[in-house]
Structure formats: C-alpha cells, structure tokens
C-alpha cells in the first residue's frame, strides 16, 4: 500500500462518508426488523408493522454513515424499488428462509432487479440475509444461495449470511462485509 | 394463442409434489386463514374410498402438511367461515360428512351439527311400530311388509335389514326397536353466505344442500336452522351450491342438480325455481363476481355462460372434457378470469369468452383453487387425478393484456334491443299496398332490379372500353394540331406530348382519315417513335385540297363547307383495335381568289 493510499484511507476514516443502501425483499421477510437492529437504542421501535411505501433510516457502521431506504416488500409497492437503484451504493436483500413457497418469487424479483439497467452495468455489492434462521423449517443459507442461483452472479460482489433479525444474530457480520465493499468501491472512484 | 406460445410464462412454479397422493374432487380444496395469523393455509379433503382407508382432512402450511385429521366418514364438501367475533379472528372449517356438519377450529374438532332426520313413509313407520318387543317377532312378516314398499324410499335401516341374511335379521330388528324410524338427511353440498357484511372477517352462514332436495341455512352462532327451503317444485337433487349476496340484505343461492338443472333461490322464497336446463351433466358452476355471470361447465366439453336471470350469453366448445373450474380474481387488475381445467393437463384462463392464458400440468387436474396462500396473494393450487399437488404463483408483472372493453361489448349488445324507429304513416300505407297486391309489386320490383343491373353492367362495360390496359393512355397524351397555309396546299403540324412524368409512350401510330375526293395527304400513316416522359414529338404532313372548278361547282363547295372540310386524326396503339385518342381538325377553306 502506497503512502498516498494510506493517507486517503486516513482522511476517509476521519471524514465521514455518506452512502445510500437500499433494503429490499418480499413482504414479511424482516427488512424493517433488520434495519431496526442497527438503529440507536433510543430510536428503536418495539413493534414492527408492515412498511407502506418506504421509510428512510440512518445508521453508522465503521465510520460510514449509511442511509438505508427500507422499501416495502408488498406486491403492489415492489415497482417502487427500481426508482432507488440509481443512487444506491449497495443492496441488502432480505429473504425469509422459512417461506419455501415464495422462494421462486424471491428469485423472480432478484432477477428483475439484476436485469434493471441501473443495476446490471454497475459493480454494486449485494448482501443477502437469509433471515429467520431460527424457524424450525428454515432453509440453510447454502440452499437459498443455490435456489436463487447466486453462483451465476459474476459481475458483482455478493455475500449471504444467515440471520435472525429479532436477536440480531448474523446481522453485524453481513453489514461489516457490505461497508468494506462500499469503502473499496468508493476508493476506486 | 400464438402470441403467448412465444413469450415466457406468467406463472412461477413454486412447488410440485408428485408423491402427495391426494384424491380430491372439485370444491374439495379451500384456502383459509385457519390459524388466525393472516397467513392462509390450504385445506384439502383427501378422499380415500378403498377398504381399510380413511378420508383425511389435510392442512398445508406453505408446501408442508401442517395438520392431518382422520374423518369419520366420506366427506361430501368443505367450507370455511367465521362464526364468532372473538379475537384473534379464527374461522372454522366445516366438513359435510353423511348428515353431520363437522367443524374444526385451529385444526381441532370444535363442534358437530347433525341435520334433523326425515320422516319415513307411513307404511314403513307402521311396520316398525307394529313390532312388539315382548311378543315374539315375526321376522318374515316384517320383511315381507317392507318389501312391499319401493326400496329407494325406505330408510337406511330398512334397506340394511332387507340386505341381511335371515339369520341376522331378528337381532338387527331388536337393536333398532327403541329408536324412532327416521331417514338420514344426507349432505351433498355446502357453501357459505356472509350474514350482514361483505367484509373478509365478517361472520357467514353455512348453507347445506341435501340428497332429499332441501336447503338449510344455518345460524353461524348457535347452529339453529334459519331457513329451510326446497330446491325446486319437482324432485331435484342438489350437488353443487353457490351463494351470493348477504343473508340479512338480499341473496341468491344457485343450485346445480343432478337432473341437469340450475335452480335459483332468492331471499323470501321457500322453494327454488329452475332457471337453466343444460343438455349435458353439469360438472361445475361458478358465479363470476365482476360481471355477475353464471358459468357452467358440462360433460359435453361445453362452457356456457348465462346472466343471473338465466339468459344464455355464449357457449364455447373445449377441445377436451372439462374437469374443474375456478375463479381467478385479480383485484389489482380489476379482472376476474375463469380457469378451466381440461382432461390431459391443460388449464385455460378465460376472460369472458376470450382465452388469455394457459398453463400445462403433467396430469388431468381434479381440483383448482386460487387465492392467498401464506404471504403470497396470487397462488394457484392444482391437484391432479394422479395425486400430485402443484403450486403456481402469478408473477407480479403479469397483466394478461386484458382489455375490459372486449368482454363487456357482447354483453351490452345482447341485453339491448335493436333501436327500431317508430312506424311511420308512409310505412303503414306501403305495407297496406303490399298486402293488397303482392304479386304485381314483386314483379315491378324485380323488373326495376334487373334494369338497374343492366344499367350497371353497361356502365362498367363502357368504362372498361375507355380504359385500355391498366393505365388510361388518353390521359397521358396531349394532341395538338396546327394548320398552316392559305390553300389549296396546307401544312398540318401535329404535336404529340407525353404528359406522363415517368413512363415513355411506345408503339404508337397516327392515322389520318379524310374524304379522298377533297383532300390528298402526303402520308396517311405515321409511325411514332418512343416519346420519353414530358417530351413532345411533331409530325408534319402536307394536305392538298382538290378544289378544281372542273370537279365541284361553287354552290356545292359552299354546301360541302362545314362537314366535309375535316381531317380526322386517330392515335393508335399497336395491337389495339380502338383508337387511344381521336381528334377532328377543321380545315380552313381555300381562298378562291388565288
């Protein structure tokens, strides 16, 4: 690592960067619960209700100020997702790993997203949360990755982590990976 | 269908279980929020009709069986309704078994309602009542008396008695002696009717149709009979029943019977009225909510549509026999499609009578249901005759290219009568005359008609003659003439101009026609070379007038003047026997003084 790069990293860590992250996934997959975990203790909500439209939340991870667009996963709001693709630096895709029936719907939505012109040309980091890992009939993150065909995503860095958004298990690890990726991406530009 | 052959399916294959080993009939699978958590489960009546097997009530949560209950007897139908207003709102699942409505709540038996028995025939009643327990039983006399009554109208206990070997008959009679003879009221079909509100969570009344042709509407809270009505004035056995409306406001109950009739029962009626009679046996009947249409599938491959009053709208013949129907309600598109399951494994989706999509499954579907399942709103569950269960999810992006005008158009036209004008005085007089002498009027009319045809033919023939070939050459050539000289020798200069901007004129000739006694021409026929577009060609000919005094006397000359002093010019085309263009050139008279 050259001196300049070290210097820029130092500056980068001192000056907080603002990045946008879009949180998508089907309804009832736990997007708002995931975001709720990262909020400050005084901002946390005790009861999560289905999101209507979208909500904007801010939190910090490794000195990176993240603005998360928590999109509603309901069928009739899913067409809103694409309007936020343009300005985002990373994508968090939350999957209900106990909902075997809708795994095809998840794949369909993921494929639609990856084919979108604002996404397909960019090297955006994709973070998948195989949420609800505590449910007794939940699928493992490996099975979900296989079912969604994640191995076919060649042009984007992706990571899947099994999570439990209620207890916060697995969330920190995933978001750390995402911030690392976004940092690298910002440094290149 | 050619368009949809090429494009990707509108349905996602969510789950396919070939080994589910389910045996169902239409209307034996429902989607209901049985756990009260807002996530619909699939409830299936699994019919097992072989010996040593029991019918089961299976509840699927997503793709997995969440509950499996053994039923005491062969079920006929399944319903689900809210019976109370307690929170959390949990509906009961009702299964019609023999004469009982078995109700399950949270997948556990909850309540059983038995339909009242039917009275037996007086002769049978007397026979059973005449048996005195204390005195010896004359088994043979009892059997003989029962045999005198038609077997079909006997109660099941008498029927069973007649089928027993003589050695067991006495024991059988003794075991039943204390019970009042009754006929079992068999449940054949069931449906639900919302009581006072169309809300999803509002309570609903179960409606039961029985083998005897009686319809019962039950109170959902205390399970007493709210209404008892006959299906029809003649004996009709209901086997499919559907209801629309609200019990407290207004409702319509449609009953399909085994006698190929559809009967309507309205609020306030105690007896239904037959409104539709079909030729084939009815497979399935649906009421499409949007258009309020009745759709009936019959065994003769036909899909019929009727208005709610029973007027026939349309019929479509399918390529394969229909096995099941299902309403596909797409609220976000404001459309109601009908899924038609066909033998062989094809499921066609119709909007009105227009096919909009199709799905293929590996086997003949026996039952289709569509609705919310789990968290997904548009799930189609297909159960096949082979026992497989298939879940298909409608894609969010599917719009079916629906046009709402198409379906409503034929309906509107059908209902409205044609706009006929009022009968005018003229019309009345005309019709009066027609009645007086129809033969002569017809003759006159025919005469005029033939004349008209002749006139038309003539006009056409004339037009064809004017227009030679495929283009009208007359319009392409401009002919002008110039006469020079004082006489008796003249020079005529003809100028032919090609008016056409892109095609040249070829193979033309010019012919002069004159009275040989008056004029002499240097040449009578000219071959015209090709005239390129927009150019002109000039021909020069000298004319000599034979005006010698020795031939014609001056007085005659004067007479000749007007009509004889002409030069006719014809422009001819090769191989055509009529001129393309004709012109007359009036020649000036020779100045006699010279």
From TrEMBL, chain A:
One of its GO terms (cellular component) is ciliary membrane. The keyword Transmembrane helix does not apply. Keywords: Cell membrane, Cell projection, Cilium biogenesis/degradation, Cytoplasm, Cytoskeleton, GTP-binding, Lipoprotein, Magnesium, Membrane, Metal-binding, Myristate, Nucleotide-binding. The keyword Mitochondrion does not apply. Mg(2+) binds at residues 32, 51. It is found in: Cell projection, Cilium membrane; Cytoplasm, Cytoskeleton, Cilium axoneme; Cytoplasm, Cytoskeleton, Cilium basal body. GO terms for molecular function: GTP binding. It is a peripheral membrane protein. GO terms for biological process: cell projection organization; establishment of localization in cell; system development; vesicle-mediated transport. InterPro entries: Arl6, P-loop_NTPase, Small_GTP-bd, Small_GTPase_ARF, Small_GTPase_ARF/SAR. It holds the Pfam family Arf. GTP binds at residues 25-32, 73, 131-134. PROSITE patterns: ARF (PS51417). Belongs to the small GTPase superfamily. Arf family. This is ADP-ribosylation factor-like protein 6. It comes from Cryptolaemus montrouzieri.
Automatic annotation (TrEMBL), chain B:
It comes from the Eukaryota. Residues 11-266 form the Bardet-Biedl syndrome 1 N-terminal domain. Coiled coil: none annotated. InterPro entries: BBS1, BBS1_N, GAE_BBS1, WD40_repeat_dom_sf. Pfam families: BBS1 (PF14779), GAE_BBS1 (PF23304). Residues 477-591 form the Bardet-Biedl syndrome 1 protein GAE domain. PANTHER family: BARDET-BIEDL SYNDROME 1 PROTEIN. This is Bardet-Biedl syndrome 1. It comes from Cryptolaemus montrouzieri.
